[in-house]
Amino acid sequence: MKPNIYLYIFVMAFATWCMRVIPSLVMKKPIQNRFAQSFLYYVPYVTLAVMTFPAMVQATNEPLAGAAALIVGIFAAWFGADLIYVALACCVTVFVLEFLTGMM
Amino acid sequence: MGRDGARQDREAEIERKKKGYGTIRRDKRETEESRINRITVFLEGVRDGFPIGLGYFAVAFSLGIAARGYGFTPFQGFLASLLTYASAGQYIGFSIYAANATLLQLVILTAITNLRYILMGLALNQRMPEGTSLGRRMLVGSCITDEIFGVTIARPGVPDPWFTFGALCTAVPMWAAGTAVGISMGSILPDSVVSALSVALFGMFLAVIVPQARRDKKVLAAVAASFACSYAASAIPAAASLSAGTRTIILTVSISSFFALAFPRDAGEDGTDAGTAAPEKGASV
User: Fold this and answer.
1) Is B114 on the interface with A (CB under 8 A)?
2) What is the tens place of the pLDDT at every residue in A2-18?
3) CB B51 within 8 A of CB A87
4) Shortest distance, CA A77 to any CA of chain B (angstroms)
């Protein structure tokens, strides 16, 4: 028999929330160990980079448009564009390129 | 002595009140300032949450289309997204609901898919000074999603729960709405718009990692290595068969460990590092 869907939803939400707050419950102060410090310094950039490529190229209908958006986004961010403008530049790149390839 | 001291204190108190800046009044002004500060930071979060929400809407829309296939009603999808706000985790959760999995299986799979939140939580807590209240730590932790984590890291200084909460308040309702709309009306948005919006989230990731890569060559190398390894992992059949969440966690741990061993950071090094960030004013929940 299928479990009750609402029970299912609440259990899923609670289990996810636990993963979010476990570190907050455990850590009372920054870790002093040099390896751990360096590891945690790299984690944000590495994990976001891993999630960005190649997923970004695979997310669009046209992989080429996704690749172009990746390059546009890197340039925009390198030259200091704000978060929202980097995101918008990527979206516009995909929209325009897919529109153009659709016409061809 | 004690009595004298107490009397002097009292006299000093009366003196201050006469001069018009009594302690009570000063306290009031301080809480007023920290309240305004909190609102400002909250609104910053609301602003940064908006582009996240736009991207979420598009992604949640496709999640909704899948959820519809698994037998979710728009309300159930809305509720699940509002409470869980975890993209890959929800896909898995929905699909194993359809597969008649037990609650224990659900818990285990949810934990594995969202293991990266533990790493993100550790990284955020590492940036908070000793003595940060549990409430602040919990609130920052509760707001973690890939994207909110990203904008929080990008923001200079100590992670602020009012900022993360502000971002959550705009982004998550849009995530939930996208799911409900996706379930109720499969194709309201043109395909080209969904495709364009789907890169918004990745654009935000780039806005977080690229500026730091420009400042710190070691991060640049780590990002380049991450791109290369991530691509390799998606192309090698054995690694590609793992779920995206599992791949993310394995790659993150191994690449970060490698760089931490090969290029450790010296204590007191500049950058957006934990220990060097100054505690913020009015930092109490």
Assistant:
1) yes
2) 668 999 999 999 999 99
3) yes
4) 5
Structure tokens that stand for A100 in this block: 């153009």
Q: How many whole angstroms separate alpha carbon B91 and alpha carbon B85?
A: 11
End-to-end CA gap in chain A: 52
Q: For residue B21, is pLDDT > 60?
A: no
Pairwise CB contact (< 8 Å): B202 & A8: no
pLDDT for B28 beyond 90: no
Contacts of residue B12, Cβ cutoff 8 Å, sequence gap at least 6 = none
Whether B248 is in a domain gets the answer yes
Kindly determine whether residue A77 and residue B206, on different chains, have CB atoms separated by under 8 Å: yes
* Spatial CB neighbours of B114, under 8 Å, sequence gap ≥ 6: A15, A16, A19, A20, B86, B88, B89, B245
- pLDDT tens digits for B42-61? 999 999 999 889 888 877 88
- Does the beta carbon of A104 lie under 8 angstroms from any beta carbon of chain B? no
**B278 in a domain, yes or no?**
no
Place of tokens 């582009």: B51
**Phi and psi at residue B165, in whole multiples of 5°?**
-65, -40
- Domain assignment of residue B84, yes or no: yes
For B130-165, how does the pLDDT look when each residue is reduced to its tens digit (9 = 90+)? 988 999 999 999 999 988 999 999 898 999 999 999
Domain boundaries, position B248 = 30-262
Number of compact structural domains in chain B: 1
Q: Rounded CA gap, B200 and B55, in Å?
A: 5
For B112, how many CA atoms within 13 A lie in the half-sphere containing its CB? 13
As for the ipTM of the complex, it is: 0.88
DSSP 8-state symbol, B280: P
* B283 falls within a domain: no
Check pLDDT > 90 for residue A83.
no
8 Å CB contact of B200 and A91: yes
Q: For residue B209, give the nearest of A30, A49, A76 by CB distance.
A: A49
Compute CA A77 distance to the chain's CA centroid, rounded to the nearest angstrom.
Answer: 15
